[in-house]
Amino acid sequence: MSRANALVGQSGGPTSVINASLAGVVDGALRSRKIEHIYGMRYGIEGVLNDALVDLGRESSETLKLLRKTPSSALGSSRLKLKDEHFEPILAQFRKYDIRYLFLIGGNDTMDTIHRITEYAHSVGWDMTGVGVPKTVDNDLFGTDHTPGFPSAARYVAMSVLQAGLLARDMQKVDQFVIFQCIGRSAGWLPAATTAAREQSGDAPHILLFPERPFDKERFLGKVREVHEEHGFVSIVCGEGITYADGSPVSASETKDKFGNVEFGAMGGTSVAVTLHQMISKAFGWRGEFQITESLPMCAADRGVKLDFREAYRAGRQAVKLASKGTGDVMVTLQRKPGRSYHPTFGTIPLKEVAVHARPMPDEFISEDGYDVTPAFTEYLEPLIGELPEYARLKYKPAKKAEAEE
Fold it and tell me: For the segment 361-375, what is each residue's pLDDT rounded down to a tens digit?
């Protein structure tokens, strides 16, 4: 392929480091001998259909440098589900701007979008190379050790549960329980990450509820009572997508997005944290709190992990390297070399495999009773999020009584 133009976009929900990947793609394209101009699509693939492309090569070097640590999705995002009638006008835009390289930063649905677009382009004789850059705080992309965005989101929820756990411990005479709800439709990676908050036995969280394990109400309430009797309060972390054994959401949500995914806590259903709160209050008569962060773990750069920003940027650069060598229809992956020390490398996986597979928490990472993680998960997580802050623990030594007057 002769020198041509490239197009990059962001899709789905953001992460704290998705713009670092965007900066990586732009920097890589500006250095590539195969790419003339690097364009960006405003609001995902809708920007292509609406002729809303911008020339990222005209941004200043200072802006691109700052982009590497800027949260949210700088180009804007979209959840448009591609239909057959979209492909012809998309290709017309590619011809109009001489776009031969396509980069999209996103999750499963995004990888499916790249695959379908490049497949169509090839079917009508348009030479095109498409490479996906992984992104999701859920960490459920198939074929990669972890996804850029997950480490920072994991640190966010761990910090939240650490601090909320101290509050719950000290306020146990007022509120007997607290529920922290994590995003993540079908995978429990973020609920599991909150276990990094623990420093010693009895620390929050006490009970984890994973989408990978069916929810049993009576068994759950029994566990709640057991923990309360032992610690005086209960810290519960739940994934938003937990379901009963028959597959129905605990949140009772009936709303679905354009890709057919249940929108937990959306109109038509109550959030799972509220449902659990009502369940516990009705069973025990206790007062408690629920905490629902929604999109905050996806855009909190102040809790971002340096490793995460660095890997996200490098993943964008790697995508351009692959495309420049003619390697397409793949997603960049992060792989971990064997051994106790963390040594990541880059690999690839075909887009069509990422599009049809998910990556739930493996069984060896979930405890036998389904309410906690195993040491194997702790070992997996530790190098990704770094150390959490240490807080004071009072000894609560009894006060000395005054000596009786003679």
Answer: 999 999 999 999 999
Identity at 121, one-letter amino acid code: A
Q: Is 302 a catalytic residue?
A: no
CA distance 147 to 311: 9
What is the per-residue pLDDT across 316-334, written as a single tens digit (0 to 9) for each?
A: 999 999 999 999 999 999 9
N-to-C CA span, the chain: 102
Q: Chain-wide mean pLDDT for the chain? A: 94
- Alpha-carbon torsion (347, 350, 354, 357), positive or negative: negative
- CA-nearest of 193, 112, 91, 119 to 149 is 193
Do the annotations mark residue 240 as ligand-binding?
yes
Quick check: 180 and 207 in contact, CB under 8 A? no
Tokens of 18: 């998705």
Report all structural domains of the chain as residue ranges with CATH numbers, in order of start: 4-136+303-356 (3.40.50.450), 150-301+360-385 (3.40.50.460)
pLDDT recorded at residue 176: 98
Q: Which of 53, 57, 54, 49 is nearest to 87 (CA)?
A: 49
Query: Looking at residue 124, what is its pLDDT?
Result: 97
Count of beta carbons in the 10 Å neighbourhood of residue 81? 14
Burial code of 351-374, b = ≥16 C-beta within 10 A, e = fewer?
beebbeeebbbeeebbeeebbbbb
The token duo for 49 is 């259909």
| Residue 356 marked in a binding site | no
Q: Which residues pair with 350 in a beta bridge?
A: 330
Report yes or no on whether pTM surpasses 0.70. Answer: yes
Of residues 109, 138, 145, 308, which has the active-site annotation? Answer: 138
Burial label, 87 (beta-carbon count in 10 A; 0-12, 13-18, 19+): middle
Query: Are 317 and 27 a contacting pair, CB within 8 Å?
Result: yes
CB 266 within 8 A of CB 253: yes
DSSP code, position 361? P
Tell me if 260 sits within 8 A of 109, measured CB to CB.
Answer: no
> What integer pLDDT is reported at residue 267 of this predicted model?
41
Q: Is the dihedral of CA 288, 302, 382, 331 positive or negative?
A: positive
Structure letter (DSSP) for residue 83: -
What does the alpha-carbon distance between residue 401 and residue 316 come to, in Å, rounded to a whole number? Answer: 66
Is 226 flagged in the annotation as binding?
Answer: no
147 among the known binding-site residues? Answer: no
